[in-house]
């Protein structure tokens, strides 16, 4: 309970959800500290994540092996960061990881294009996409390297009024 | 044997991904072991606790573990003397674990682990008892020790080492407290946590060594107990929040703006519960339990004339008859200074509860506003328009495919809009047309408002006319005309406003604000027209067409008193000629002629209004939403055009109407609760049922809005309106308390010239005399005026400082901009 923003009851409830995703694999009793991981496919089918265009990225950034399989620890961690009690800085760190598709610690133009396509389900034309990505880099890039480092991202997102309320999953 | 197990442990610990709980492997009180066990415990801490509480087996298991641990400790003790090899191995593995965990914090832990190791070995025998106790509870403390490497058991801990130790303990404690904010993987966090907790356990005793160790240990234990209690209390509090799952469901289907209405409703429910608690516990219950029972006093009895119909359902529904002469209304309360064996001061309590409910409401509304204002922060920056659109437009709460579709569409549209705006320079065309349309829309809205005000006034005048001619001649409609007209206006005008606002072509959030503002003005106008009508009615009930209500009531009072003396005299006439030493005559209270009781009347009106408002809302939901949905669903097959996309279609959830309804309902409660203590109770009941009904209606009959927008910052808007309404509703009550004399024949203040005199009376009788003197000095205008002046000055000062802060903020932003553009 010290490591997350959840109360005991909530952690138990989370365990229930984790369990019902794969009852034959997940043990009810965690005292022996089993090493059980659920694959990404199961997790992104959760109702809370199903409609999210970034579900794969979310799961990948919280998984230990980077492949998207979550142990219960990572599961709790993920929902703890996405809960409404997590502070802005922590959420910003993970948001950066999520939007960084090629995991190079920078959000480059390609990452932006991918994000935009996921957001609009590819309804925008190519030139519109280019325009938007250019505008974003123009607005947020402070150090002028043509891509967003974590500092740029954090600076931009800390001023966003909606960030805390949208980057939030209730479970 | 020990070393074998040691090996096992080290290999287990090294395997980062595969930390088996070392519970089975025998309890070794080495740091790693405990860490492993702790990890198992900590990770699934909740479950362990549960097991702790109900599973005797597990508790026994753990106790066994501890005992085994102690056994091992004894073993290790033996190994200590030649513990070199062991230590080395431990150091090795500690080092490895240091590498594995390689963060700055961890380094400290690792290093400390190394140095700790020896210390731990040494201290083990001393701390066994403490450890066992500590192990049984959840640890929140961490100890850190680094650097204090080389002490063996024989050397006493020096002062400076003690101080260093303390410092590091504090540091580790802070680390534990902020652990959840660190962006590490859970495993790392857990290991750091356990390590630090271990150390805290170990060294708690050490710190207290030499100086009142027992006391220190006791203090430490109490702090631990207190932290555990706090955590349990927090857990309990979150368990108490009602309706969480319902709201979550609604949020995922309809987005956060609709859910914000329900969150607001839940908050209101909380406030009303507290108000209910106050009025019920401090006013209604004492009177019911300790006051004179029904029928003992004239004011507590149904008059003879009304007795026949007193129990009819119709009368009860109308809140007269038995309902009127009960604790529900002002008139029942007796003006005795103290009642019952507890000497409960009823009038004082009534007065203070009335004032207290208003004060509490003010406080909590302002506190919530301040909290919301803090969250908002930021400001209206448009410098990151596109970036924000890209990274914050998706609402992660959405879990429903339909809503998701809507959201995708709206995001796309919003991007296209922004792109268009960016690509062309300002579109000058049609700005005049837009302006003209907006002016026209406002004009129409004003006309509607004026029309509704006039309609209410007209209807009220008509009802006065009816009343003059006697209500019996008219049917149900005429009798309830005022209430019905007000409710109908409340139903149809907002829709009208909605249609008008489509002319204006604003962003939906701004359109919502305008809508809210107009409906607000509508309800306000209605309410105040209603109050004016009420005052007229009071006038009317007195049946004298004199212009001044107060003079009117005063006159009436005199007349009734005169009538009563005559009536009394008539009673005596039959028995005793002189009236000087006449023994009291037993008269049935129901027969005593009664004076007017305007407070109860006002209370009744408010209660009736609330009830009819509730009924209207429910019926509107049922008809407007449910029947419409049923109609569209089932008649779609046999209708010419597609009902679901065409005219009626399913309704959207009307946020503005509902929010305002809620706020105005609350305003009525605040206004009326002084005269009818039962109002908060009725409201609690109403909100409770309303929550369930509306949740069901929303899920069943409504569709998500076309343009899903966020509810950000609307919260403070609702709060501001609530504050305004609160202020307005307390005005009438305060006015009556201060300037109108209470009815002489009913209520807890009867007989006094002003209601607030109960305070001075209490001061005289119940407090020691010096208190009264002090109060007298304090209420001297010479003291009050400077005080008011001081407050005004401090408000001005705070305002000025906040303005200067804002300006400094803007300056900094500008500087940042210029740095960026360089």
TrEMBL record, chain A:
Keywords: Calcium, Cell membrane, Cell projection, Cytoplasm, Integrin, Magnesium, Membrane, Metal-binding, Repeat. PROSITE patterns: EF_HAND_1, EF_HAND_2. GO terms for cellular component: cytoplasm; photoreceptor inner segment; photoreceptor outer segment; sarcolemma; stereocilium. The keyword GTP-binding does not apply. It comes from the Eukaryota. GO terms for molecular function: calcium ion binding; magnesium ion binding. One of its GO terms (biological process) is integrin-mediated signaling pathway. The keyword Transport does not apply. Residues 50-85, 87-122, 128-163 form the EF-hand domain. It is found in: Cell membrane, Sarcolemma; Cell projection, Cilium, Photoreceptor outer segment; Cell projection, Stereocilium; Cytoplasm. Its main location: membrane. SUPFAM superfamilies: EF-hand (SSF47473). PANTHER family: CALCIUM AND INTEGRIN BINDING FAMILY MEMBER 2, CALCIUM AND INTEGRIN-BINDING FAMILY MEMBER 2. This is Calcium and integrin-binding family member 2. It comes from Cuculus canorus (Common cuckoo).
UniProtKB/TrEMBL annotation, chain B:
Belongs to the TMC family. One of its GO terms (molecular function) is voltage-gated calcium channel activity. InterPro entries: TMC, TMC_dom. The chain crosses the membrane at residues 267-289, 310-333, 348-366, 436-460, 484-503, 515-535, 717-738, 774-798. The keyword Membrane applies. The keyword Membrane applies. Residues 17-26, 84-99, 115-125 have a biased composition (Basic and acidic residues). Residues 27-43, 58-71, 126-144 have a biased composition (Basic residues). GO terms for biological process: detection of mechanical stimulus involved in sensory perception of sound; vestibular reflex. It is a multi-pass membrane protein. GO terms for cellular component: plasma membrane. Keywords: Membrane, Transmembrane, Transmembrane helix. Pfam families: TMC. This is Transmembrane channel-like protein. Residues 1-16, 150-159 have a biased composition (Acidic residues). Residues 1-159 are annotated as: Disordered.
């Amino acid at each position: 309970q010290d490591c997350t923003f959840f109360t005991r009851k909530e952690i138990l409830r989370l365990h229930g959800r984790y369990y019902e995703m794969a009852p034959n694999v997940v043990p009810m009793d965690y005292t022996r500290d089993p090493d059980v991981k659920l694959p990404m496919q199961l997790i992104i089918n959760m109702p809370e994540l199903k409609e999210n265009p970034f579900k794969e990225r979310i799961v990948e950034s919280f998984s230990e092996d980077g492949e998207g399989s979550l142990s219960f620890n990572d599961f709790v961690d993920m929902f703890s960061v996405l809960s409404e009690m997590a502070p802005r800085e922590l959420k910003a760190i993970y948001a950066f990881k999520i939007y960084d598709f090629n995991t190079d610690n920078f959000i480059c133009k390609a990452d932006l294009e991918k994000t935009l396509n996921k957001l609009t389900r590819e309804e925008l034309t190519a030139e519109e996409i280019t325009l938007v990505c250019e505008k974003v880099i123009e607005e947020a890039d402070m150090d002028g390297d043509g891509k967003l480092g974590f500092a740029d991202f954090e600076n931009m997102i800390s001023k966003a009024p909606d960030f805390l309320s949208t980057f939030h999953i209730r479970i | 044997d020990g070393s074998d197990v040691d090996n096992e442990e080290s290999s287990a610990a090294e395997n980062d991904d595969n930390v088996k709980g070392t519970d089975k492997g025998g309890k070794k009180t080495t740091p790693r072991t405990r860490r492993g066990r702790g990890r198992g415990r900590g990770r699934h801490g909740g479950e362990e606790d549960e097991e702790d509480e109900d599973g005797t087996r597990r508790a026994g298991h753990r106790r066994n573990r501890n005992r085994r641990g102690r056994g091992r400790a004894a073993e290790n003790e033996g190994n200590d003397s030649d513990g070199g090899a062991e230590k080395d191995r431990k150091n090795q593995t500690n080092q490895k674990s240091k590498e594995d965990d390689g963060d700055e914090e961890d380094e400290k832990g690792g290093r400390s682990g190394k140095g700790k190791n020896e210390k731990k070995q040494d201290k083990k025998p001393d701390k066994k008892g403490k450890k066992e106790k500590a192990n049984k509870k959840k640890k929140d403390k961490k100890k850190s020790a680094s650097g204090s490497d080389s002490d063996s058991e024989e050397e006493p801990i020096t002062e400076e080492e003690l101080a260093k130790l303390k410092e590091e303990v504090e540091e580790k404690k802070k680390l534990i407290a902020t652990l959840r904010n660190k962006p590490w993987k859970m495993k790392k966090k857990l290991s750091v946590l356990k390590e630090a907790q271990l150390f805290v356990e170990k060294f708690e005793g050490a710190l207290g060594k030499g100086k009142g160790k027992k006391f220190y240990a006791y203090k430490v234990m109490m702090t631990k107990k207190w932290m555990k209690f706090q955590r349990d209390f927090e857990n309990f509090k979150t368990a108490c929040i009602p309706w969480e799952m319902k709201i979550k469901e609604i949020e995922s289907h309809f987005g956060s703006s609709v859910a914000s209405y329900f969150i607001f409703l839940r908050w209101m429910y909380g406030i009303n519960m507290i108000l209910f608690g106050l009025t019920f516990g401090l006013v209604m219950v004492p009177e019911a339990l300790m006051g004179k029972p029904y029928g003992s006093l004239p004011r507590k009895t149904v008059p003879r004339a009304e007795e026949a119909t007193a129990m009819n359902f119709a009368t009860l529904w109308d809140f007269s008859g038995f309902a009127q002469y009960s604790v529900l209304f002002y008139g029942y309360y007796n003006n005795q200074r103290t009642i019952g064996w507890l000497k409960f001061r009823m009038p004082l309590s009534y007065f203070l509860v009335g004032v207290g409910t208003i004060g509490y409401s003010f406080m909590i509304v302002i506190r919530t506003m301040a909290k919301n204002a803090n969250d908002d922060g930021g400001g209206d920056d448009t410098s990151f328009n596109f970036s924000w659109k890209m990274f914050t437009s998706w609402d992660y709460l959405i879990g429903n495919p339909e809503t998701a579709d809507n959201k995708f569409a709206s995001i796309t549209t919003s991007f296209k809009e922004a792109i268009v705006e960016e690509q062309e320079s300002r579109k000058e065309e049609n700005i005049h047309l837009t302006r003209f349309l907006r002016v026209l829309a406002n004009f129409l809205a004003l006309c509607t408002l004026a029309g509704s005000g006039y309609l209410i006034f007209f209807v009220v005048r008509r009802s006065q006319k009816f009343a003059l001619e006697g209500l019996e001649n008219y049917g149900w409609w005429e009798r309830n005309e005022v209430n019905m007209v007000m409710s109908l206006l409340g139903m149809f005008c907002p829709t009208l406003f909605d249609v008008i606002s489509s002319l204006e072509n604003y962003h939906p959030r701004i359109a919502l604000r305008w809508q809210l503002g107009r409906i607000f003005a509508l309800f306000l106008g209605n309410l105040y027209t209603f109050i004016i009508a009420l005052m007229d009615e009071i006038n009317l009930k007195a049946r004298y067409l004199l212009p001044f209500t107060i003079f009117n009531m005063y006159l009436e009072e005199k007349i009734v008193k005169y009538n009563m003396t005559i009536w009394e005299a008539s009673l005596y006439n039959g028995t005793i000629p002189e009236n000087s030493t006449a023994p009291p005559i037993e008269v049935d209270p129901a027969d005593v002629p009664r004076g007017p009781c305007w407070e109860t009347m006002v209370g009744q009106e408010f209660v009736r209004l609330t009830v009819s408002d509730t009924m209207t809302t429910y019926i509107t939901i049922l008809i407007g939403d449910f029947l419409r949905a049923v109609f569209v669903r089932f008649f779609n097959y046999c209708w010419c055009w597609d009902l679901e996309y065409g005219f009626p279609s399913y309704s959207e959830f009307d946020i503005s109407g509902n929010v305002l309804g809620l706020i105005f309902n609350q305003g009525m409660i605040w206004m009326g609760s002084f005269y009818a203590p039962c109002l908060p109770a009725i409201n609690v009941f109403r909100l409770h049922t309303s929550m369930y009904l509306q949740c069901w209606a929303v899920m069943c009959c409504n569709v998500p809005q076309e343009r899903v927008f966020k509810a950000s910052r609307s919260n403070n808007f609702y709060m501001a309106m609530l504050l305004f309404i609160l202020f307005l509703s307390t005005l009438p009550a305060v006015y009556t308390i201060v300037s109108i004399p209470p009815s002489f024949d009913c209520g807890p203040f009867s007989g006094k010239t002003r209601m607030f005199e109960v305070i001075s009376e209490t001061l005289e009788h119940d407090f020691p005399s010096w208190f009264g003197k002090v109060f007298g000095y304090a209420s001297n205008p010479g003291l009050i005026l400077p005080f008011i002046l001081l407050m005004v000055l401090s408000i001005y000062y705070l305002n000025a400082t906040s303005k200067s802060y804002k300006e400094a903020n803007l300056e900094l932003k500008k500087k940042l901009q210029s740095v960026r553009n360089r």
